[in-house]
Write a structure and sequence with these properties.
Layout lengths: L11 H13 L4 H13 L7 H13 L11 H5 L3 H13 L2 H14 L7 H14 L6
């Protein structure tokens, strides 16, 4: 199984509070974050269906879901990494026809006012540039 490394920036107080919370349970910060992420995505090490439901309830309450008013193209294609990479590649190659096709798919599904093509592509490219790279 491929492993990915992530870098996380937190305010100092939040980082200290998280470290103390982890220490009280005899865990490390990465162990807590890995457990939560596995629960959120129903990963191989998910704590179970209740944990999955609770993590996703939190996710929805925080507003991290797509297709509300003004949902972004990044959010629309967010479940499909290949599409995000294809959009970034089309942008780097200046393939306006391919970009327009992706945008039209998004725009047809968007409720409210979709973001403009240029801004949408910029957000996707910025996201793809920060995606974790496979180690190994």
């Amino acid at each position: 199984m491929a492993k990915y490394s992530l870098t996380l920036e937190l305010p100092e107080q939040a980082a200290e509070d998280l470290a103390r919370k982890a220490a009280r349970e005899g865990l490390t910060v990465p162990e807590i974050l890995q457990a939560f992420i596995n629960d959120l995505v129903d990963g191989e090490e998910c704590g179970g269906s209740d944990e999955y439901e609770k993590a996703n309830a939190w996710y929805s309450r925080r507003g991290f879901f797509y297709m509300g008013e003004g949902g972004t193209m990044l959010a629309y294609f967010g479940d499909n990494t290949r599409n995000l990479e294809a959009i970034a590649e089309a942008a780097s190659e200046g393939d306006s026809e391919a970009l327009q096709e992706f945008y039209d798919d998004y725009k047809d599904a968007a409720r409210g006012k979709p973001e403009q093509l240029q801004e949408a592509v910029k957000r996707v490219c910025e996201f793809v540039a920060t995606m974790p790279k496979e180690e190994g």
